[in-house]
User: Fold these one by one.
Assistant:
Number 1:
Amino acid sequence: MSLTVRTLFFASYRDLAGTPELPVELEEGARVQDLVQALRERGGGFSQLPEAPAVAVNRTYAPLSRPLAQDDEVAFIPPVAGG
Amino acid sequence: MVPEPPTSRIHARITSEPLDPAAALASARTDADGALLLFVGAVRNHADGRAVTGMRYDAYVDMAQEVLLGIAGEAAEELGSPRVWVEHRIGRLAIGEASVVIVSASPHRQESFDAVRYVIEEIKKRLPVWKKEEYVDGEEGWVAGRTPPGTGAAEVATGEQQAAEQGRGA
């Protein structure tokens, strides 16, 4: 069994990923930290993503231990600079 | 007879349209409000000793809209300011243009001062918005930001990093 999540990248993380959006397939039961690891292992700019980035799952900030579900929207959030 | 007090009014929006502070003030106030506070965050022409010619704002729009509405609601409920109006602009802004406009209107001044301060500080902490400075020499760079609370990144962020993140921006 596997699940697919939709990952979004913004600002400096988008520069690293080279794309605003990417579907990622993970094993059932995967958590945010597993997604981060899977992306970093893709190499290239992805390997420069932090080990513990800020992430939002379905538009709410979430810890790395957050379990993921099919079709979750997982956004990688660089340090924010509004105002 | 004392008029019936107006109900609480919250407005929050992420927009690519230019912001109009005077219109915001007029839109937020009611006849019950004796204290109208307006905060305008504007693009300035310098950063860390470098000349800046413009700023490009990017946002996770769907989430930023929800977070901004939540912040405005907290300011109203927890700080007791019944009218809170806030908009944050995205896209390319020229020097002097307003990037954020906050209005708080309440019967007395204390609640309005508290609410406006709360909204701008929370925007800095957790609104998923980023900005890229454009320098006079043609270079550009993302402005160093702050790690939002409630994430894995916040768990590992050091006090030193957090201290370095203070005092940046508007």
Note: Chain A has one domain: 2-77.
Number 2:
Amino acid sequence: MALLEIRHLGIYFGGLRAVHDLNVTLQGGELLGLIGPNGAGKTTVFNMVSGFYRPSAGEILLEGRNIAGLSTHKIAALGIARTFQNIRLWNELTVFDNLGIAQHHSLGYGFWDAVLHNKSYRQNERRARKVTEELLELLGLHHCADEYPKNLPYGLQRRVEIGRALAVRPKVLLLDEPAAGMNPGDVEQLMELVRWIRQEFKLTIWLIEHQMRVVMGLCEYITVLDFGETIAEGTPDQVRQNPRVIQAYLGDEDVAHA
Amino acid sequence: MQRYSSVILYIAFCALIVMAAQAGWIDAYMQLVLMYVGINVILSSSLNLINGYMGEFSCGHAGFMAVGAYITSILNIWLFTSDQTLSGNVLSGSNAIYLFPVTLLIGGVGAALAGLLVAVPSFRTRGDYLAIITLAVNYIVKSSIENIQAIGGARGFMGMRKVVNAMTETVNLPWVLIWILAVAGLTIVVLKRFVNSTYGKGIVAIRDDEIAAEIMGVDSKRLKMIAFMLSSGLAGIAGGLFAHVLGYINPGTFTIMKSTEVMVMVYLGGMGSLSGSVLSAIGFTLILELLRPLQMFKWVVIPLLLILLMLFRPEGIMGHRELTDIFPKLRWFTLSKEKQI
Amino acid sequence: MFLQTFLQNLLNGLQLGSFYALIALGYTLVYGVLLLINFAHGDIFMVGAYIGFFIATFLMGAYALQFPLPLPNTAIFIITLVLAMVLTAMVGVTIERVAYRPLRRKGASRLYVVITALMCGLLLENGNLALLGASRRGFPELLPKVMYTVWGVTFSNLKLLVILTAFAVFILLETIVRKTKLGMAMRAISYDRMAVPLMGIPVDTVIVFTFVLGSSMAALAGVLFATVYPVLEPYMGALIGWKAFIAAVIGGIGEIRGAFIGGFLLGFVEIFATAVFPSTLRDLIAFSALLIFLSIRPTGIFGVARRTKI
């Protein structure tokens, strides 16, 4: 059974077919890419998989179970986490708390436990804090645990967002343009980080990215969207040479030279 | 020992007050002011959970007060008195001492259920629209009470004094004061533990970015429900206590003006700051008492004060910080919970 | 007989709805441009009525100042109306300048402005109470009341005046918003406040204009209200303000058509509710209707849900 299977997925806003007949399968452990020109529907796909949008058609099977249309927090609990195109960290909470809250679905205690400070609360809270500390340590964020995200440099914020997604303990990690706005040095670090995360946490990663260097360098298999439809699929080399892809990007030099 | 030092200190403080009251060092008027302070602490901090931590604009807190006030008062009069209109003379007055907290709690539960009226719409709307809904609920509660003649309608009813007397006759202590102090202390403990837990911090995440919170696994519907029910439940208990301080009760006490009073305290103290709510509750009550001779201008001064606050220091006295952030030495009392789990 | 009662109630609903609509229009104009619920608006209505009262009584010689020519009452009415609208507009603009604009300059969160608005309203109410005392004032009868009876339904010329005024105002406002440059600017600001000044449009001027419009409409409603129900008291704006606000929300706040329709809708709901239920339940029914309506359609009748993109 595949880990994540997307079958004939589509979403229509009025007369607009934002995504149509998308088919993708993730067996588990892959690093997949999703690319396409602006407005192709890539983030919309992520929105559907993470539960923010309800698909108009098709199925999203997570370990055989159709999660299309489930509430977002349930989907997170089932094992899908993501980062956002525009960073959406909680600026009024510290980095530490940002990662803590991402563990909400696995906290294991409720309101009354918190109020009574009983054993369940103490044990589970301690465990959650340990998880956060370990993650921060692993990601090299320990020094800014008590900082507020808005005070951190952009590259660190992106890393915190990835850390937060990891705190959800997902089976599938969706990264939405993680390299956006980064300088080349940071991009290299990011690519290292993604490779390392995939290995360390044995994750399945699906990546949206515009920077072809990142996509070609990281992904094993790429799906190309244009106007909501899949126009090509394959390994980076196959996609790179596909005339439809080149045309969709209107002769984008990155594709040819990456 | 250190972990509970603040609790022990508070209990000692309360015991001192009660002794002083018994000995006559604190006269009836000062006791009254203390009781108002206590009630305002409960009101202000419970509203802060919604308006401060959760970032909503609830302007109907008085409605929940009313629900709790009426339920508790009716139950008490029915159970423990024999000569009021609502009396049922079910139990002897001497039981009032044990059952007073029970009826308070029942009032609180009733108010918490009323809180659902606001919680459920909050799943789909927020901000301005939710503000209107809270207003509407406040009005609906008040209007409904006015239309139920059996409990006095617009005139209300009295008789809570008899209940208090029944308690004092059994054991001669200022019971209402004691319960107010106890509930105020409990309120702070409960709220503090809730908002400091990772679970409770989800509320701040909801305020900051609800969509991201949901996507990261926070069950925002459930949290909102808990927050609203906790907030209105506490307001209900405050209402019950309030009714027994006054000795009478009528719907006119629980209007938008009363809700506004509580809002003033919250914004004065600083949204999202528990110590701020406590401080402003104390300060506000005292200012009100000082302004008593200027009764007419009270509601000119209060809005003016808040407008100036908004213009020059909208974060309130404490902003988002707690006393322990400004005076780190105080952490000795409270350090426990954060790091010593 | 039933038809007559129905038509009678219909007319009453139209009249009540006219007041709600006139005030609701002011709420919706300001919200459309500033995304601010101007909670002080209901009290602007009260201010308008009081200013009208003082002007009218002054012109009628109450303050021992006689005019060389005795003015006919209808003339007094018109002068009162116009002057009240002008002066109340100034009050509205002053509040904007003193309380809302500084916060806008600071980029303060919308919440703070809303709180300020609420406080301004309270200030107006209680300032009135403190300055003028609690005694009610009687608005002088300026327009002769003529009763008509058509098809067994009785109504007065005043009622007709109110309803026609509301419609006239609606047409006027729709024209301004849709056909004039200023109106276009108002609509532009409601979509994107940041971009508008970059296009050379003086945002502050447009906002002032919005307040002028809204406040004068409220004053118009105030004077008319005082003409129909001649008793004034400081809190008269409070409840009717909330109700008009409900009307604006039901109609879809930010939409002029919404405020108008919402006002009449609420008027009908209240009148027909009191026809069936005891009058003490009137407010209860109005607010319950609001609650139910918002649960089903949170953005109101004409409101557009703003989709969040992530």
Note: Chain A has a mean pLDDT of 91.
Number 3:
Amino acid sequence: MKSNLRIGSLVGLLLVSAVLGLLWNQAYPGGLSWRLLQLSLPDGSRRSAWQPVSTDSAFALWIRREVCFVDLRSPEDFRLDHIPGALNKPFLSFFRNPEVVTDDRPVMVYDFEAHSERSVLLVQAFRRAGAEAFFLRNGYRDWLAYGFPREAAEVR
Amino acid sequence: MTRSSIKSAVTWGLRLGLGGLLIVASIDKLLHPLEFSFAVAGYGVIGQGGALLVAAVLPMLELVTGLLLISGRWSENAALAGAMLYTVFLLLVAQAFVRGIDIECGCYRTEGGGGITWLKVIENSSLAAGAWLLFYLHSVEKERGSRG
């Protein structure tokens, strides 16, 4: 009887925390959105991790041309400057109509800011489309801070 | 100093220490949930999808448990919840250490905070032991209260 009560109390604590946690994440600007949380539902690839890649590792991959960089910012931002060789796939248009990038190399998605939720969503979209995908953990801002190469060009 | 006053000082100290630590640990995770989900996935126990759910719920559970411990409300159940949380943390850290996974702890801050070393395992073992001791002290106290 006593242990049942205790288990009930713990479950109650967990439920209250879960509700508060989910509400917090919707109210807080940097929280996990419903759309992102939906990715926690089983989809057959639950063991896969998104593997955010550090800026210096990404640079090494860029030197060796082992991945295809995908810039998810707007065409205007992309025109100003971007990682040399990157393709521009603006987030909204790509997400509405996912289309796997041209070559067979894995995809390295990047946004301007670090820990971008848009990057995660795009990586997931690529993975669901069958491509191997990662994202630049600290974003293009960090790439620039390192002083790594950049180029200005027309949208491909 | 009587035995009961030592016991109450230990209980008070444990409540404050363990509860305060849970609150401190929850703040950075609440502010950076996505980064915390990467840290959770790095332990290799659940996938990134499950880590998102953990990142949405666990920091709030830590905060609520920490506040309950410090406030002294619902003390026995809060102590049990704290003990279970610290035990889960210990198991996660220990399995990462045994498997030699090269990750940052993510214990108090979502980034940095040092890798998983045997010191981290000892630190977590001590916290878990302290939390179970607190639960035991609360149980004994409650048992006495219900008898007398």
Note: The first strand of chain A starts at residue 52 and ends at 53.
